[in-house]
Write a structure and sequence with these properties.
The complex is a heterodimer of chains A (about 230) and B (about 140). In chain A, α4 runs antiparallel to α5. Helices cover about 80% and strands about 0% of the residues of chain A. Chain A is built from 8 helices and no strands. Chain B is mainly alpha-helical. Chain B is built from 5 helices and no strands. Classes of the chains: A mainly alpha (about 230), B mainly alpha (about 140). The interface between A and B is medium-sized, with 35 and 24 residues.
């Protein structure tokens, strides 16, 4: 049964998504951050779907569980595309920019292949712990990709406040989710696991909404010393 | 075993990303000048330490209710970051060398952020009073 807390979280996340898209459209930056905005649209659609299924079938239903884990896995893949878009922003003037699309395709293909192989091998365990383990792997890949991006930013002395905030927001999101999944694997019976993922789910829309609404494109990190800021 | 490894690496990444995120928020306002009034209120001009100034400013910010949600969310992060710095400052002095200077600089940045937020709130309230209140009620 949904309580005020669930409604509030859903509303906040959805409002965050809408705010990001409105900001991008109003400032005519939708295509500049295309992959990120596509991810936000996917996130908004996912939130509406989950909310509808949650209301119709309830939290403990098999329909909601299937929807949750499979849309979650799909969403992480879309998120990888968004991160590859951020790589292109960071390396926008570099020679390496043209290779990033290729690398993104390789990483996505490798992740999909590993997931497919695991599904083939553990088909009988699909409804048990498999989806949780798959989620953990995907989020951990996300942590690694984001961390590599952060290192690249650090090396290049990236000073664009907006890009740094977006990347660190993704870093917090992925690592918090990976910690949650890992702890869930270690202590599966805690009731708190029903509350933490939705709470974490609000972090990304809210922090991105703040970044797009409040931080102008031309803002640069002051007193830079960019290296000092990132270290 | 995998879960423990994932948890350890992710916890480290979480702490690092959180610190980077907070530092970026702090650096985004580093160039904004604070009015003399707020500097005086914070006590920084009277030799208070940055941590004392931050605590004082945090209290003043609670008294000065925001008219909009301006910087409320970031302030929560900065408070959390400052609490983390306070905790790190408890490490015995022999173990902290140059890191202590870094900690002090970061606390000063937190105090500056709180001062900027307070300044903005006061300015907004002043503007509101100037435009909305009748002459007799204006401060």
């Amino acid at each position: 049964m949904l309580g005020p807390f669930d409604y509030a979280l859903w509303l906040v996340s959805f409002a965050g998504d809408v705010c990001i898209l409105v900001c991008a459209l109003r400032r005519r930056q939708f295509f500049q951050y295309l992959s990120l905005n596509v991810f936000i649209i996917a996130l908004a659609v996912d939130e509406v779907l989950r909310f509808t299924v949650l209301r119709m079938y309830g939290f403990a239903s098999i329909q909601y569980r299937y929807l949750y884990y499979y849309t979650d896995s799909l969403l992480v893949v879309v998120m990888f595309v968004a991160i590859s878009g951020l790589y292109r922003h960071v390396f926008r003037d570099a020679e390496t920019a043209k290779y990033i699309r290729g690398w993104a395709v390789v990483v996505l293909s490798a992740t999909s292949l590993v997931s497919f192989l695991v599904i083939q091998r553990e088909r009988s365990a699909l409804t048990t712990r498999f989806v949780v383990e798959l989620g953990q792997n995907l989020y951990f890949t996300g942590v690694t990709l984001t961390y590599i991006l952060w290192l690249a930013m650090f090396k290049r002395g990236e000073a664009r406040t907006r890009i740094v905030l977006i990347v660190t927001a993704f870093g917090v999101f992925f690592s918090a989710y990976a910690v949650t999944y890992a702890l869930r694997g270690l202590l599966p019976n805690l009731a708190v696991w029903h509350v933490i993922p939705p709470l974490l789910g609000t972090w990304l829309p809210l922090s991105l909404a703040y970044t797009f609404a409040k931080v102008p494109e031309e803002a640069r990190i002051a007193a830079l010393d960019a290296r000092g800021t990132h270290s | 075993m995998t879960a423990v490894f994932v948890m350890a690496v992710s916890l480290a990444a979480l702490a690092h990303s959180f610190i980077s995120h907070c530092r970026t928020l702090l650096r985004a306002v580093a160039n904004i000048q604070v009015s003399q009034n707020v500097r005086t209120l914070s006590g920084l001009d009277f030799g208070r330490t940055a941590m004392e100034a931050f605590s004082r400013l945090a209290l003043l910010l609670q008294l000065c209710t925001p008219m909009t949600a301006e910087r409320t969310r970031e302030l929560r992060f900065v408070r959390l970051y400052c609490a983390f710095l306070k905790l790190a400052g408890l490490v015995p002095p022999p173990l902290l060398g140059r890191e202590r200077i870094w900690l002090q600089r970061e606390v000063a940045a937190c105090a500056h952020f709180a001062a900027v937020a307070l300044d903005e709130r006061i300015s907004r309230i002043r503007r509101f009073c100037e435009h909305s209140l009748p002459d007799t009620l204006r401060p």
